[in-house]
Amino acid sequence: MMGNGAFGNTMFYNTMWAGHWLWMLVIGIVVVIPAWRICQRTGYPGWMGILIVIPVVNLFLLYFIAFSEWPADKQGGPNA
């Protein structure tokens, strides 16, 4: 018997699990940083960029930013 899971209770299985979370963290950072900057440049709070990592919510965020009036345009922000 192999034990629990597809790979059993082996070192490969535990390493793959740790590597998965590390990879997800790297991808999350690579995606969140540009989204954070975009939100700031449009005049919205930067923390809204974190929403980009939540499935389905990320689509709403993109459409919201694309089709809403940007506070930065109203205030004469850096891109006005």
Task: Characterise the protein shown here.
It comes from Marinobacter salinus. This is DUF805 domain-containing protein. The chain is mainly α. The chain has a domain at 33-68. It is built from three helices and no strands. The protein has helices spanning 11-42, 57-67, 71-75. The longest helix has 32 residues, at 11-42. The relative contact order is 0.11. The mean pLDDT is 83.
List keywords for this structure.
mainly alpha, 60% helix, 0% strand, 80 residues
Write a short abstract of this structure.
The protein has 3 helices and no strands. It has 80 residues and is mostly helical.
If you compute it from the alpha carbons, what radius of gyration comes out, rounded to the nearest whole angstrom? 19 Å
Sequence of secondary-structure elements: HHH
Uncertain runs: none
The major sheet is characterized as: none
How much of the residues is beta strand, in percent? under 5%
Oligomeric state of this protein: single chain
* Number of strand elements: 0
- Fraction of helical residues: 55-70%
Mean pLDDT: 83
Shape by Cα distribution = elongated
Transmembrane segments: 20-39, 46-66
Keywords: Membrane, Transmembrane, Transmembrane helix
Protein name: DUF805 domain-containing protein
